[in-house]
TrEMBL record:
<dbReference type="InterPro" id="IPR005814">
    <property type="entry name" value="Aminotrans_3"/>
</dbReference>
<comment type="similarity">
    <text>Belongs to the class-III pyridoxal-phosphate-dependent aminotransferase family.</text>
</comment>
<dbReference type="InterPro" id="IPR015424">
    <property type="entry name" value="PyrdxlP-dep_Trfase"/>
</dbReference>
<protein>
    <recommendedName>
        <fullName>Aminotransferase</fullName>
    </recommendedName>
</protein>
<dbReference type="GO" id="GO:0005829">
    <property type="term" value="C:cytosol"/>
</dbReference>
<dbReference type="InterPro" id="IPR049704">
    <property type="entry name" value="Aminotrans_3_PPA_site"/>
</dbReference>
<dbReference type="InterPro" id="IPR015422">
    <property type="entry name" value="PyrdxlP-dep_Trfase_small"/>
</dbReference>
<keyword id="KW-0808">Transferase</keyword>
<keyword id="KW-0663">Pyridoxal phosphate</keyword>
<dbReference type="GO" id="GO:0030170">
    <property type="term" value="F:pyridoxal phosphate binding"/>
</dbReference>
<dbReference type="Pfam" id="PF00202">
    <property type="entry name" value="Aminotran_3"/>
</dbReference>
<dbReference type="GO" id="GO:0008483">
    <property type="term" value="F:transaminase activity"/>
</dbReference>
<dbReference type="InterPro" id="IPR015421">
    <property type="entry name" value="PyrdxlP-dep_Trfase_major"/>
</dbReference>
<keyword id="KW-0032">Aminotransferase</keyword>
Length: 439
């Protein structure tokens, strides 16, 4: 009898005992093609020798030094490497242990920045519906996933939510993608005005929405307009790249593709690639300077921030992404996989949209392609899809999002960047088998 508290008490998972490349192996020797990298985590695949050696080497030197007393070599090197490649003016890196912590830190830093600047009235955060920013209370409040929030609503800080930029569902007939993006961005300005300019501390969004929408990028021009609006009202722009960052969408930082620089950027998942729990919040010089020239202390901190072994793993991961030119590979393999999905499933009566960037791809399931009608939630399509795929030896990430109240089902694919053509054939074959059984 297991004493581990599982995610689903009615669905106890098998035990993983091995990981090799794109596969995980359980105690029965069954192999699973990890087509979602867990949840967009395992970007290097399993068993990467360079990362393993980097972790062991760091353990031989020093496993832990509390950042209240000492920094560590890998933390220093990783911060410099990230800043070298990050959108300017990001300049400082605050290491944490995962995505929710990165988002919590970002919300608190945004608040403290305004306090240091003598603007205590800035206390409203604006985020978007159908988004996920993590499961701790602050991050959960920022997210717009009604299902995850429901039972904790009384404990959550008050966050305003505007519509996401979701072209497949939201663009009107006769409206260009650009016009649609501008209309969606306008919701931010309207909400700032409604709340009162001078009361909003930040706007938070995922450049490519992962868990709640299934790899949905914004249309061109949306984030540029968002940046302008934030600047106009002194609102900080926080981009959450916990899922879509670290090369996943074809550039090290997803914001690069949208041509915007946030004031604060959150990363996690692919940063540790599953080898260590690590996340980070990057902030601009302007924000750091406000604290440096003000109180001198960010009123935050966890025991394990900047952990030497976690940052050593992160450093090895980012070096692997750069030295092995894996981001070019993401672009190439991503384009190939998307094309395969379109060729094979593009006319499927129940697949309404195939989308995404790089190796961050999504499919949306609909009961009627023309009307884009979501399936009846009681069918629990996502859960059935996940179970059937898993039985077929495939790990993928089907989810039910909430399209402004109405459920919508989608699947997220986020395979390791080392995915080769044979893996793709296997993936598509197993997906087909799964769709045949469930749809
Ligand atoms: N932000 C985004 C965009 C995410 O997708 C997630 C997790 O899926 C998080 C934050 C939370 O990260 P974690 O689960 O590491 O706390």
């Amino acid at each position: 009898m297991s004493h581990v508290f599982p995610r689903h008490t009615k669905n106890i998972p098998p035990i993983a005992v091995g990981g090799e490349g794109c596969y995980l192996i359980d105690t029965n020797g069954k192999q699973y093609l990890d087509a979602s990298g867990g949840a967009a985590v395992s970007c290097l695949g399993h068993g990467d020798i360079d990362v393993t050696i980097a972790i062991k080497d760091q353990l031989d030197k020093v496993a832990f030094a509390h950042t209240g007393f000492l920094s560590s070599e890998p933390a220093e090197k990783l911060a410099s490497l990230l800043i070298e490649h990050a959108p300017k003016p990001l300049d400082k890196v605050y290491f944490v242990s995962g995505g929710s912590e990165a988002v919590e830190s970002a919300i608190k830093l945004a608040r403290q920045y305004h306090l240091e600047n003598g603007e205590p009235d800035r206390k409203h955060l604006i985020a978007r519906r159908q988004s996920y920013h993590g499961n701790t209370l602050g991050a959960l409040a920022a997210g717009g996933n009604a299902w995850r929030r429901a039972q904790f609503d009384p404990l959550l800080i008050n966050v305003s939510h505007i519509a996401p930029c979701y072209e497949y569902i939201g663009r009107n007939d006769g409206e260009t993608a650009h016009q649609y993006g501008q209309r969606m961005a306008q919701e931010l300005e309207d909400e700032i005005i409604r709340l009162g300019p001078g009361t909003v501390l930040a706007f938070m969004a995922e450049p490519v929405v992962g868990a709640t929408m299934g790899a949905v990028p914004a249309v061109d021009g949306y984030f540029k307009r968002i940046r302008e609006i934030c600047d106009k009202y002194g609102v900080l722009l926080i981009l959450d790249e916990v899922m879509c960052g670290m090369g996943r969408t074809g550039s090290l930082f997803a914001a690069d593709i949208d041509g915007v620089a946030p004031d604060i950027l959150c990363i996690a998942k692919g940063l540790g690639a599953g080898y260590q729990p690590i996340g980070a919040m990057l902030c601009s010089d302007k924000i750091f300077a406000a604290i440096e020239n003000g109180s001198g202390f960010f009123q935050h901190g966890h025991t394990y921030i900047g952990h030497p072994v976690a940052t050593a793993a992160g450093l090895a991961v980012v070096n692997a992404l750069l030295d092995r030119d894996l981001i070019t590979r993401v672009q190439e393999q991503g384009a190939k996989l998307k094309q395969m999905l379109e060729n094979i499933f593009g006319q499927h009566p129940y697949i309404g949209d195939i989308r995404g960037r790089g190796l961050f791809l999504g499919m949306e399931f609909v009961s009627d392609r023309d009307a884009k009608t979501p399936f009846d939630p009681s069918l629990a399509l996502g859960a059935k899809m996940k179970k059937t795929a898993f039985e077929n030896g495939l790990i993928c990430y089907p989810m039910s999002g909430t399209r402004d109240g109405k459920l919508g089902d989608h699947m997220l694919l986020a395979p390791p960047f080392i995915l080769d053509n044979n893996h793709m054939d296997e993936l598509v074959e197993k997906l087909g088998k799964t769709f045949d059984a469930v749809l």
